Amino acid sequence: MATVPARDKYRSFLHDEGDNVQWRHGGPPTYDVVNQLFEQGRTKEWEEGSLEEIVQNAVKTWEMELSHKVRLQDFKSINHEKFKLVVNGGEELKGEETLKLGSYNALLKNSLPKEFQYYKADEESFESSHQAFRSAFPRGFAWEVIAVYSGPPLIAFKFRHWGIFEGPFKGHAPTGDKVEFYGLATVKVDENLKVEEVEVYYDPAQLFAGLLKGPSMSDSPTQASACPFHSTT
């Protein structure tokens, strides 16, 4: 008899989907490892049912769909027609564009000259970007809400993202240190609480300062393989 996977405490729409949902790796991901990192390292533990907890879980759900669902039509967290993402005041990305790029490339894409870019999103695919960060953070890249400043329909909040740098990243050896950054975001939702617009503001240098301080690896590195079913955020 098939074992029914435990329901994730922080993400909706993982195990209550019909067979018509197309998952990127053939089935729903598991978040056991990154959930443990999150619970061990979070600085806030929000009361169940609070606005902070609702916002935190909603963002985790959106990220899960973006990273693991193949078709935009299968997303339940967004308004498909109106969704757009803007990072640091840059290019506006619609739903299909964001899905094609993937979460890492969408959040790290910028218009700086190539020589000033820590990470060249234009040269990365969806798969290569996720592999790079799965390699660097084998236990995942945890995310939490630090504060919520306003409720629906325009939600404003502060967040923290962190992981333990235990695997190679782009030719840099791991340091074993915690790498983290903070940011601000606004999320506009419709009357059904579906996301219409997301704006994110953060300093990528906070992230890459930790990743690039690892010593350069002399030989051409082979990035550590990680199971795609174990998600990083």
TrEMBL record:
Coiled-coil blocks: none
Domain of life from the UniProt record: Eukaryota
Gene3D superfamilies: 3.10.450.50
Name of the featured protein: Pathogen-related protein
Organism: Hibiscus sabdariffa
